[in-house]
Amino acid sequence: MKNLRYIYKTNNTVHVLNAKISQNSKIGIGYILQTYHFSIDQIKNNDIKQDTNSCLDCPLSYNKNNGKSGGCYTHKGMQLMGLKSMIRSLNRNIDTINDFNYNEFNSFIELIKKTHAIDLVRFGAYGEPILLSLDVVKVLSSLSKKTTGYTHQWNKDKYNAYNNFFMASTHTEQQRSNAKLLGFRSFFVASDITKLNSVNVVNCPASKESSKNLTCIACGLCNGAKTNIKKDVYIMKH
């Protein structure tokens, strides 16, 4: 199975839709489609820290921590090296990146359908997935029964329609409660399990504290509110 990729830009964002084989122990073994969202500034200046337009106001971003890492897992180890490599490649080819084109996008989708069965669609492998248009999200979601996606923009009214596809990234019980009122299920980062309201919440089966019982491909809990799954998902801060 070969990698398939569609790269395009909208406004200040370059989107990379990348279908490939995953051998990540947490995600699982399978053919997955992942989305990445970089700002034009990151690419032009070859600087991942210029993430204001890709990570927006995420509390874990560089831009919200004075240029230092806020603890996002993408700022560490092989993840960070891979993202920097991708930015360098985009930088070298920036003049060839065109605006979104429906025919090109549709050809990419049709090629996937003809040649691959997608085991998981992973929105926002880097960057805010709500930077994708809702129409694109709907099409990509249709490629697999298993999807994951997380957004810190859940509290903004204009993004409410994304609740069917993405989990609200929350960090306090109050945020989790507020997200529920807005129709979002939460992926909740807990720092103290003794303070966790355990009603309608389940530990991430791919987490260390759950002994990595399931991979993301096998799980399917983090698919937003489009199914009859009601429980939020939590993971211990690490």
String of helices and strands: EEEHHHHEHEEEHEEHE
Task: State the oligomer.
Answer: single chain
Number of helices: 7
Largest sheet: 5 strands, mixed
Large-scale geometry? globular
Structural class: alpha/beta
Number of strands: 10
Cα-atom Rg, whole angstroms? 17 Å
Termini distance?
34 Å
- Uncertain residue segments: none
- State which percent range the strand residues make up: 15-25%
Spatial strand sequence of the major β-sheet: 1-2-3-4-5
The helicity comes to: 25-40%
Name the average pLDDT: 93
What does this protein structure show overall?
The chain has helices at 40-44, 52-55, 77-92, 102-115, 134-141, 173-181, 216-219, and strands at 4-10, 13-24, 28-39, 120-126, 147-148, 150-151, 167-170, 186-190, 201-203, 232-236. With 238 residues, it is an alpha/beta fold. A hairpin with a 3-residue loop joins β2 (13-24) and β3. The longest helix is centred in the middle third of the chain and has 16 residues, at 77-92. It is globular and about 50 Å long.
